[in-house]
Design a protein that fits this description.
Elements (H helix, E strand, L loop, with lengths): L6 H15 L3 H4 L11 H12 L11 H10 L6 H4 L5 H26 L6 H25 L9 H28 L5 H19 L4 H15 L5 H13 L3
Length: about 240
């Protein structure tokens, strides 16, 4: 006797496969797909979904969480913001949404890390991206500044730009403190952070005051005296060179 395949069984099987493919808490929450570049609104949606607990904190050990984190920290998302063929005002607005959302998500991870939840690898990945993002911010501010019109909103805009540049200093100084003082981060985490600090130090140095540079030189020299990793010492030497004057 020939076996007959029930078409309804086949249909239900394919339907079940489709439902399984959609069993992704991030997609089900309406967040953006991870196989395309994100814009500021996509970042804002992720930050809000995590904050309101619509989705769990993405983890590198979870398949869907790893995909979200990888896309969140992908520098190709910044192609729009780097494109000088587009209006600087539009790029700045989008960039601000990314920066604000990134900071909000980092704070959510930091709150869990200080409680003892093992999320230091995720926190490190996010901080590395935040450093890259800050460098772009420095470039955009330098590009945006000459376009400001001296109208009734000029002083307000200037204060906003100054606040942003001050925030860049806070990011770098805070990173140094975390590496030097925090026991939560592993040696590998600290090496990754030192590496990105070395990569971005020359850009950050353009917004540092003379006093901040002097403060950082003392702190990095102190760190250097207790490090044993040649790679870490090389990173610090690069940073010291960038903030030498």
């Amino acid at each position: 006797m020939k076996s007959v395949i029930n078409p309804w069984v086949v249909t239900l099987a394919f339907f079940g496969m489709g439902m399984a493919a959609l069993a992704n808490p991030y997609l089900e929450a309406g967040l953006a797909a991870t196989d395309r570049e994100w814009r500021g609104s996509d970042y804002a949606a992720v930050a809000e979904a995590i904050k309101t607990q619509k989705v769990p904190l993405p983890r590198l050990t979870d398949h869907d969480g790893q995909k979200i984190l990888s896309r969140f920290c992908a520098t190709d998302n910044l192609a729009f913001n780097r494109s000088k063929s587009l209006p600087i005002s539009s790029r700045m607005q989008d960039y601000t949404a990314i920066l604000t959302s990134g900071g909000a998500v980092i704070n959510l991870y930091a709150a869990e890390v200080v409680k003892g939840v093992k999320l230091n690898d995720e926190f490190t990945v996010l901080m590395v991206f935040q450093m890259e993002l800050s460098v772009l911010g420095i470039e955009l501010v330098d590009e945006f500044f000459p376009t400001l019109q001296k109208d009734e909103k000029y002083e307000t805009r200037m204060r906003g730009l100054q606040k942003m540049r001050s925030g860049m200093t806070t990011v770098f100084v805070g990173m140094q403190h975390s590496i030097a003082e925090d026991d939560i981060l592993s040696s590998a985490n600290k090496s990754d952070l030192l590496k990105v600090m070395a990569k971005t130090a020359a850009s950050f140095a353009t917004v540092f005051s003379g006093e901040v540079k002097a403060e950082l030189r003392v702190k990095f020299q102190s760190m250097k005296s207790v490090l044993t990793s040649e790679a870490d010492i090389a990173s610090i030497n690069t940073i010291l060179k960038a903030i030498s004057n």
